[in-house]
Amino acid sequence: DAGITQSPRHKVTETGTPVTLRCHQTENHRYMYWYRQDPGHGLRLIHYSYGVKDTDKGEVSDGYSVSRSKTEDFLLTLESATSSQTSVYFCAISDPPGQLNTGELFFGEGSRLTVL
Amino acid sequence: AQSVTQLGSHVSVSEGALVLLRCNYSSSVPPYLFWYVQYPNQGLQLLLKYTSAATLVKGINGFEAEFKKSETSFHLTKPSAHMSDAAEYFCAVSAVDMRFGAGTRLTVKP
Q1: Nearest to B79 by CA among B7, B13, B6
Q2: What is the predicted pLDDT for the residue at A2?
Q3: B-chain residues within 8 Å CB-CB of A108?
Q4: Do B44 and A105 touch (CB under 8 A)?
Q5: CB count in 10 Å sphere of residue A70
Q6: A108 to chain B: nearest residue by CA?
Q7: Residue pLDDT, tens place only, A97-109
Q8: Looking at chain A, which residue has its C-alpha nearest residue B35?
Q9: DSSP secondary structure string for all residues of chain B
């Protein structure tokens, strides 16, 4: 177990409301990621962070923002949730890929979000 | 750019039969390749990874995968399926960032 906690694990909300998902790690890994999982699409990268206050967009970043004020916490915010954002969201952590590291990801248990 | 294609969204085998899950990748640079497994209501766990040290990679639970550069493939196999192998399996490629295939759901029939 890589010491990754996601909260909340389940959330139901209404269209137009803001939602924040939290990922907390105890492993001191530099890289953190948010993915969404949808049937037929596998996992798609939303945003990632390569250090405190350093973030970048993934392939499906529209409608999402992130913040990382501490090494251990990475927040994903939906400013105004839409039904298309109903999904299971996974946080992952890794060391930076390079000669000594393959960039292997360690995953949290997921947060199931339903937007009505 | 890199991408992964998993052939077959569902695979069904009988207990004791060979498991073969197919993965083809595309990468502009030499990649790292991974297989992850996901059990219901859980996150993904690493099954095995290819890091260029050896083309035949052995993982947990009796799974192995062979990297074939000429075929750009990294298929996952297990000689004898067990009921506990029923799960969803994801192939992934990492060069610039980690990209996942759409997943293959494995069903094991008694």
Answers
A1: B13
A2: 57
A3: 43
A4: yes
A5: 10
A6: B43
A7: 666 667 789 999 9
A8: A104
A9: --EEEEE-SEEEEETTS-EEEEEEEE-SSPPEEEEEEE-TTS-EEEEEEE-SS-SEEE-GGG-EEEEEGGGTEEEEEESS--GGG-EEEEEEEESSSEEE---EEEEEE-
Tokens representing B19 are: 């498991």
- Residues of chain A with Cβ-Cβ distance to B32 below 8 Å are 97, 102-103
Retrieve residue A14's tokens: 């209404």
Which residue stretches of chain B have pLDDT < 70?
A: 96
pLDDT in tens, A50-71: 999 999 999 899 999 999 999 9
What is the rounded CA–CA span in Å between residue A111 and residue B3?
Answer: 25
B window 40-79, beta carbon within 8 A of A? 41-46, 49, 51
Q: Measured between CB atoms, does A96 come within 8 Å of chain B?
A: no
- The reply to whether residue A44 touches residue B100, judged by beta carbons under 8 angstroms, is yes
B61: left (phi over 0), alpha (psi -120 to 50) or beta: left
Residue B14, φ and ψ in degrees, nearest 5: -85, 150
**Each residue of B30-44: pLDDT tens digit?**
788 999 999 988 889
Q: How many residues does chain B have?
A: 110
pLDDT at B1: 72
